[in-house]
Write a structure and sequence with these properties.
Length: 440
């Protein structure tokens, strides 16, 4: 573990919901819930106004609606989240070359490479305060909570202690005092099953966990998990900030404007995606053992299924066959808005090559055309544009009618209008594609 507080963890506050509030002036200061809006949906992010009513991530949308019925329930706009995330990650990389993104809304930064005069607590505190100010600037108003400590573990815990828009710097030498009163669930990897095992032997806090020897921990939880907890309970974490993570998977996915219901069409799309994955594997001299499909249903519920081969492959036919088999186990009768195929467990060799086996004959694929239905899907929160009124977002839809509030991040809260769902003057709005000629 480092002797100075030189690892920073930044976590954008209620990220998806905050982006929606930024871009929709009428929702600022009001409860917003982003995720699946249907009966089987799950909350992805809740604004702090919604959290006051007990709404939280991973809660069913049904329960969230019962707790906070007056919230705005939105299906999410990933293009907006990605674009905002790229601004923040660009800022972080401008202050240190060692930035390790964990997701769209959080990352570690190694301050040893941040060109600071020293790594004393006052210096890193001033740096972190300025970084938070710059995040507000580059995101047009979003806030971030920041933690700084002597390890990834401590920095991540610190960033969660003063949310939202907080800053906690843990001085070197005080880490164990910080951890001891905390529940064992603060340690990464301590989920419900591990918590229950520890509870049965009378362990509830990190301080109680600290009294257990490494041998006892291994007997209780297994070698890898027990050793991990033994060291983290003592604030021992020497993991480096890794800006260039080794590729762990290769995947391709597609989102469709109209929900897919034709099973044969879905199989064809997965087969074509498998071919793209195999091509990328081949170009990089890689193969993989585990094939995964990702399916996002009509209500935003996202499912995944995986299967593992006995040896690595880069065969399009093999990957496609496994993907179609995995799809067969899922109920997609309600419609599918996203499909994806990925391969993980990567290696730089293919088992079949070692034995001189010939590759399977690749199947010829027919041309795949995703049908266009006259009835369009208007998801709550999606960006739209009207020929006369300009840009806005879907407030709600049903019974052949779509209601739109016309406003953007740059305008005041705007008027609300309703249209027939097939009104030719109303269309989905998407950000312009970047111009390749413009360069970096």
């Amino acid at each position: 573990m480092r002797t100075e507080a030189s690892v920073l963890h930044l976590d954008l506050d209620a990220f998806f919901a905050a982006v929606e509030q930024r871009d929709k002036p009428s929702l600022r200061g009001k409860p917003v819930v982003v995720g699946g809006v249907g009966g089987r949906g799950v909350v992805s992010t809740a604004s702090y106004e919604a959290r006051r009513y007990g709404v939280r991530s991973a809660m069913s949308t049904r329960e969230a609606r019962s707790r906070c019925p007056h919230a705005a329930f939105l299906s999410g706009r990933f293009h907006a989240y990605r674009e905002t995330s790229e601004r923040v990650m660009g800022l972080l990389r401008s202050v240190s070359p060692l930035v390790e993104p964990l997701s769209l809304d959080e990352a570690f930064v190694d301050l040893r490479q941040a060109d600071l005069p020293d790594l004393a607590v006052p210096t890193v505190t001033a740096f972190a305060q300025d970084l938070r100010r710059r995040v507000v600037e580059v995101t047009d108003g979003l806030t971030a909570s920041v933690g700084v400590g002597s390890s990834k573990f401590i920095a991540k815990i610190a960033s969660d202690l003063d949310k939202p828009d907080g800053l906690v710097v843990v001085a070197p030498g005080t880490e164990r005092d910080l951890l001891r009163p905390m529940n064992v669930t603060v340690i990464p990897g301590v989920g419900p099953a591990t918590t229950e095992r520890l509870r049965r032997v009378g362990i509830h806090t990190v301080e109680e966990l600290e009294t257990v020897t490494e041998d006892e921990m291994v007997r209780l939880l297994g070698n890898a998990h027990g050793t991990w907890l033994f060291h983290l309970a003592r604030a021992q974490d020497d993991r480096a900030v890794e800006p260039e993570r080794e590729t762990k998977s290769v995947s391709v996915e597609g989102t469709y404007d109209t929900d897919l219901t034709d099973r044969t069409l879905m199989e064809g799309l997965l087969t074509r995606q498998a071919g793209e994955v195999a091509t990328r594997l081949g170009k990089n001299g890689l193969s993989g053992r585990t094939v995964t499909i990702k399916v996002r249903l009509h209500d935003f519920t996202t499912l995944s299924r995986s299967s593992t081969l006995p040896s690595p492959t880069d065969s399009r036919t093999t990957i496609a066959r496994m993907a179609r088999t995995l799809l067969a186990d899922l109920d997609t009768s309600g419609g599918v808005r996203l499909l994806g195929v990925g391969v993980s467990g990567l290696a730089d060799w293919v088992q079949e090559d070692l034995f001189g086996e010939t590759a399977e004959a690749e199947e010829e694929l027919p041309e795949i055309v995703v049908p266009h239905h006259s009835r369009r899907t208007w998801a709550p929160g999606m960006d739209v544009e009207h020929e006369e009124m300009g840009r806005g977002w879907v407030w709600g839809s049903g019974r052949g009618v779509v209601t739109v509030r016309f406003e953007t991040a740059q305008t005041p809260a705007g008027p609300v209008r309703s249209y027939a769902e097939d009104d030719p003057a109303l269309s989905a709005w998407r950000p312009p594609e970047p111009d390749p000629a413009a360069g970096g």
